[in-house]
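Any chance you could type out a protein's amino acid sequence plus the matching backbone structure tokens because I've never seen that pairing?

——
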Amino acid sequence: MVNAKKICFPLSGNETADLNVGDTVFISGKLVTARDKAHQFLFNERPGIKDLPFDLKGSLIYHCGPIVKKIGSEYRIVACGPTTSARVDMYEWWVMQEYGISAIMGKGGMGGRTLEALAKCGGVYLHTIGGAAAFLAEKVTGVIDVFKLEEFGIPEAMWLMEVEDFPAIVTMDSHGKSLHEAVRKESEKAYLRLIGLPGQMT
């Protein structure tokens, strides 16, 4: 069995700085979903901490557009698979540093500017399971709050959820390592060998 690390958000310290690419983690505590509209709002409007209904400091931002069912006055998460993180790469570096975010979770990884922000913040990028939205929803124990629901709609609103043993793997860390970039480099080397051209990765 994989020797996984357990981590609870929001963080009170800088626990993510001790995580490395390849570490498997099980997440408990609170996470906040944020897709395109939420990132655009944070980046363009730049609301102060007091203008948000929940504190993002030490938090985990999850790139996810959940399927949500309302039962009475409560919300239940039906599915919550990851969204491709590259969609918000242009904003994430700033959002992380401005709001003190400790971790990002999604799928597909992010670029160099976000990797630099992870180093500055002591944060990590977590890759979770694509195609398993219903399974991941079982790890959600409750919905605590929602922000911008009427304005953004269900998938784009910022949902504050409570989770337990939510699975992920560290693919970008605060030490400048990116599994996604390593795979890209090896793939290009293999491609150049395949077509018989010499060359090196940029």
User: Anything to note?
Assistant: The chain has one domain: 5-10+22-176. Residues 5-10+22-176 form a domain with the fumarase fold (CATH 3.20.130.10). The longest strand covers residues 158-172. The first helix runs from residue 36 to 45.
